[in-house]
Write a structure and sequence with these properties.
Layout lengths: L1 E3 L6 E9 L15 E10 L2 E15 L6 E15 L13 E3 L6 E3 L1 H10 L29 H5 L2 H11 L1
Bound molecules: zinc ion (2 copies).
């Protein structure tokens, strides 16, 4: 995501991008959809305020039943480029960058990529009531009811059941 920012008029500008996950070096198995971004740029004097919203789909297995699911992601990234060369380059931070005199463009690929990766969900459950896999036969208990379930019932409960029916 490279944007020519120097030389733009003061005020607001909008840019739209649709990019392949490979441009972001994202794992193909996890990201197969395009990354769709809207960039809002505000030019104020020597400063360029950028706000990026990036949407994509993240594919991952459910932690419980291991079925693949697709998670819609929307990531916001903000940063500022400045032409203010009185700023000490040593103090350049990730969200405040100095636009060198010989450059016209802002490359947002890395910061968007990093932001996407740190915001990946840690827990992935396909549905609240996902029953997961049977610990004995490995069957997906959302789809089938395997016979192992009976064996799992505590024998003491069996005794209680008998009492109730009597
Ligand atoms: Zn699940
Ligand atoms: Zn089972």
């Amino acid at each position: 995501m490279i944007i020519k920012i120097r030389g733009l008029e003061e005020g607001e500008h909008t840019f739209n991008f649709e990019e392949s996950p490979s441009e972001y070096e994202l794992e193909k198995a996890r990201f197969s959809e395009q990354l769709v971004s809207e960039v809002r740029l505000d030019v104020l004097g020597k400063n360029y305020y950028l706000k990026v919203t990036t949407g994509t789909v993240y594919k991952v297995e459910c932690d419980r039943c291991l079925e693949e699911m697709a998670i819609d992601m929307s990531i916001d990234t903000s940063l500022v480029y400045t032409e203010d060369n009185t700023l000490d380059p040593e103090h350049q931070e990730d969200d405040l960058r100095i636009l060198p005199a010989n450059e016209d463009t802002a490359d947002l690929t890395d910061i968007v990529r990093q932001n996407l990766l740190v915001n990946l969900p840690m827990k992935n459950i396909c549905m609240e009531e996902c029953k997961g896999l049977c610990s004995q036969c490995g069957a997906n208990l959302n789809i089938v009811e395997c016979k192992c379930i009976d064996d799992k019932i505590d024998p003491r409960w069996e005794a209680l059941k008998k009492l109730k029916t009597n």
